[in-house]
Specification:
heterodimer, A: alpha/beta, four-stranded antiparallel beta sheet, 7 helices, 10 strands, globular, B: mainly alpha, two-stranded antiparallel sheet, about 75% helix, binds adenosine-5'-triphosphate, binds magnesium ion
Chain lengths: ~260, ~550
């Protein structure tokens, strides 16, 4: 897990002077620089409307920034970021595809044969704990289960970088906590090859509980206000541990 | 069916001009309506299945073409704002133009293209049917793609779902429910026009277009009521069978393609709700539709991806061809009107238009007066509504044009040609009003009904204070569509030739028919088509559009 990462880890993804304007004049983001290191769990927090989702879309290659460059291991990103996979707040599952078809859809798009993609899909459905639900349709699942499908679908393409946009905010508190633990377990598990995670959240507690590093954004336009290193904070992090609480308090003060 | 009114008059007029001119241009090819020795249809009832198949084949070809093009065009309109600006007004014009009026022109064009062979008539009929099916499907595709959640589209993009896979996994599934519903309407429309064009072929135009419609027309002309009834029975049986064997199984399958988060759209009433319980429908759904459906989506995805990739070339071709055709047609039109004085028929057009206008308006008023109370009765309980909607929908998909040759019979009863014309127009118009009102009535919130009950509003009070205001937007939409359908009916029912006898009333439809089939005066054809289209568009823009906006603003249900 995090401790096994070498000290000066290479960079998976780097944003250089990235900015986003609407209508050529309304600046909603940047310019900002950001990097995601190999094996790192990085969180972005900030007030609503500060451009977190926009930033994540830029990283995923779904939105071309109006200025600056995105580099994947030093190669500038042209179109969709194939080495990233996204988990959506709204789940964004295909309602007409079964669980296994949803999980396999990225592999199908890559042209992976049916046998192999079913095998892989099974593996990740199993890892998120949804075995037995392969043939179910999204509408038959609870919200928590839907997001598990979303997670399995993203992991199944074995991306270098996992992007998650407020993945737990549409879930109830208990389900959200279970999901957080699951993500951390999977991140640590040798069965999952994806080791770099970029999480967008508006919950400071969530960011502190999960990340190696937290980038705090401020609004109008979205800029980096502060970067907080949490590598030294021991895991597992219980929310009532003094060190964790002290960190959370410090970050609240930063944001205020 | 009519979903939009509005937008700019100049764009519409330009498009109408383009459409009229392109089709009229074809009239000058010289081959126009030169009646040739069309053989009589073999009247043996044993051949009826063959005629039915020929009619079905025309419809099938037109539908396949309309479907592919509607998907490509609707998708393009949803994706590209530039394309949207041209596509939407074009569809809008297509839905308000009396397509039947252009049939003779289309026949002329395609007979010219096919070197005078009977294939030209076939293609003209298919083209006509295609046109009336297309706009409705394209609107459906466009509108359902607008409601496709952005996150889902982004997820597809992120996971590399593109090309044929994007069609089969994202776009087709998301438009399927709407597409099916609109297909039903399109087929009903298609039948209507196909039968009409077959009847025209037998009646004044004398072309070979063997099919159920021409068989019907010929039987009526020959006064063989037994054959007429047989053909009508076959037509009704075919429509019912299509619901049972095709639409309902497809619809049952399509249930799974409904997006979850579209609760704001009242679900369209569907025949499948009722028929879906039948064993035949379930059997077909399970054994045929579900296994074949996925394959079909895959194949369709590949076809549409291919079409989409070559769409740009087609667009450029159209963009270049249209102005050229317009110039050619404009030149022809100029010659038509500058070369000689105006024909007396042209001078009589205002009065013709007025008579037809009165007939169509009467049809609209009668339709509304009948539909509102009936819808009220139907809507009193949900179960009754589901059954009634299924029955009505099947009834409505029996093409009213099949009954048009019966004008002759009605007139011999002594009802007079005027009454017969209005009656037949009504049979084409009434359904649109009824459907829209029933749909609107289904969306009346239950709370509102209960509150009205609690306040002691019953009978007339309920009608006046709750029901009529609640269904008013649907009523207007239905009336607009009926109004368009009424003009199409005029073309068919104002002038009829049966066995040497001519039955006609004064009207623009009659003038158009006489000019195309009897005198062959192109000036009159051009002038009556143009003035009719102009009148329809003007009334749509100046009356129905504002009326709809006002009614919608005042009577819209707040969510
Ligand atoms: N298409 C657009 N046109 C104009 N402004 C936009 C557009 N899309 C987003 N914005 C603006 O960009 C800003 C950033 O939006 P974004 O969704 O990235 O914020 P966010 O940090 O994810 O907010 P939240 O926490 O509410 O999800 C917002 O102020 C939003 O209004
Ligand atoms: Mg956001």
């Amino acid at each position: 897990m995090a401790q096994t990462t070498p000290r000066a880890a290479p960079v998976v993804l780097r944003l250089e002077g990235v900015e986003q304007l609407y209508d050529g004049k309304i600046r909603i983001l940047g310019p900002l620089d950001l990097e995601v290191r190999d094996g790192e769990f990085l969180s972005l927090v900030g007030p609503s409307g500060c451009g977190k989702s926009t930033l994540l879309r830029i990283v995923a290659g779904l939105l071309r920034p109006t200025g600056g460059v995105v580099r994947l291991r030093d190669r500038p990103l042209g179109g969709v970021n194939r080495s990233a996979a996204m988990v959506f707040q709204s789940f964004a599952l295909f309602p007409w595809l079964s669980v296994v078809e949803n999980v396999a859809v990225g592999l199908e798009a890559q042209g992976v044969g049916i046998r192999e993609r079913l095998k892989k899909a099974e593996k990740y459905i199993d890892l998120v704990g949804l075995s037995g639900y392969e043939r179910a349709f999204p509408r038959e699942l609870s919200r928590g289960m839907k997001q598990l499908v979303g997670l399995a679908r993203a992991l199944a393409v074995e991306p270098e970088l996992l992007c998650m946009d407020e993945p737990f905010s549409a879930l109830d508190v208990l389900t959200a906590r279970t999901m957080r633990d699951l993500v951390l377990d999977l991140w640590a598990s040798p069965a999952v090859t994806t080791k770099s995670i970029l999480l967008v959240t508006h919950s400071i507690e969530e960011a502190v509980a999960m990340s190696d590093r937290v980038v705090v954004l401020k609004a109008n336009p979205g800029r980096i206000a502060e970067t907080v290193e949490l590598k030294a904070l021991p895991r597992p992090r219980r929310s009532d541990a003094p060190a964790v609480r002290e960190t959370v308090d410090r970050m609240y003060a930063l944001l205020a | 069916m009519t979903r939009r009114l509005s937008r700019s008059l100049p764009v519409d007029l330009g498009l109408v001009a383009a459409l009229a001119v392109v089709l009229l241009a074809s009239l000058f090819g010289g081959s126009f309506l030169r009646p040739y020795d069309a053989p009589e249809l073999e009247p043996s009832p044993a051949l009826l299945p063959v005629y039915l198949l020929r009619s079905l084949a025309r419809l099938g070809v037109a539908y396949a073409a309309a479907l592919v093009l509607a998907l490509a065009v609707g998708h393009l309109a949803a994706r590209s704002p530039t394309a949207r600006r041209f596509i939407l007004p074009t569809l809008d014009v297509l839905q308000s133009v009396p397509i039947l009026g252009f049939f003779p022109a289309a026949v002329g064009l395609f007979i010219g293209v096919f070197g005078g062979s009977a294939l030209g008539v076939e293609v003209a009929a298919v083209f006509l049917v295609f046109t009336c099916m297309f706009w409705n499907l394209a609107f459906g595709v466009y509108e359902s793609l607008l409601t496709l959640p952005e996150d889902l589209q982004m997820a597809a993009t992120q996971f590399g779902v593109r090309g044929p896979l994007r069609w089969s996994r994202l776009i087709l599934p998301s438009v399927l429910p709407t597409l099916l519903y609109n297909s039903l309407l399109s087929w009903a429309n298609g039948w209507y026009f196909l039968i009409a064009s077959e009847i025209i072929a037998v009646g004044p135009a004398r072309y070979t277009l063997p099919g159920l419609g021409s068989y019907l027309a010929q039987a009526v002309i020959a006064g063989r009521h037994d054959r007429t009834l047989l053909a009508l029975g076959l037509l009704v049986a075919t429509t019912v069978a299509m619901h049972l064997l095709l639409w309902s199984p497809l619809d049952t399958w399509a249930e799974r393609f409904h997006l979850e988060e579209t609760g704001d759209h009242p679900r369209t009433p569907r025949v499948a709700r009722v028929l879906g319980r039948s064993r035949i429908v379930r059997g077909i759904t399970r054994s045929l539709v579900i296994p074949l459906g996925q394959q079909a989506l895959g194949v369709a995805g590949r076809v549409l991806d291919f079409v989409g990739r070559h769409g740009r070339a087609v667009g450029i071709l159209v963009a270049l061809g249209l102005p050229a055709a317009m110039a050619y047609g404009g030149y022809g039109l100029y010659g038509l009107f500058s070369g000689r004085p105006l024909a007396p028929e042209v001078l009589g057009l205002p009065l013709d238009l007025f008579s037809s206008f009165v007939r169509v308006s009467l049809g609209v008023v009668l339709s509304a007066a009948l539909a509102v109370p009936l819808a009220h009765r139907i809507s009193r309980s949900p179960e009754r509504r589901a059954t009634a909607v299924a029955v009505i929908q099947i009834l409505a998909s029996v093409p009213a044009t099949a009954f048009f040759p019966l004008i002759a019979v009605v007139v011999t009863w002594g009802l007079g040609m005027n009454a017969a014309a209005v009656l037949l127009a009504l049979s084409a118009m009434f359904w649109y009003v009824l459907f829209n009102v029933v749909g609107a009535a289904a969306a009346i919130p239950k709370d509102l009904v209960e509150v009205a009950r609690g306040l002691g509003l019953g009978g007339a009070g309920y009608m006046r204070r709750v029901f009529v205001p609640a269904v008013a937007p649907g009523l207007v939409t239905g009336c607009v569509t009926a109004w368009g359908a009424g003009w199409n009916a005029m073309i068919l029912c104002e002038y009829l030739e049966t066995g040497g006898r001519v039955l006609s009333v004064r009207g623009v439809g009659a003038t158009l028919a006489r000019a195309t089939y009897v005198t062959g005066d192109m000036q009159v054809v051009a002038a009556s088509l143009a003035s009719m289209v102009l009148l329809i568009i003007l009334v749509n823009r100046l009356f129905w559009g504002p009326l709809y906006r006002q009614v919608a603003a005042r009577c819209k249900m707040e969510a």
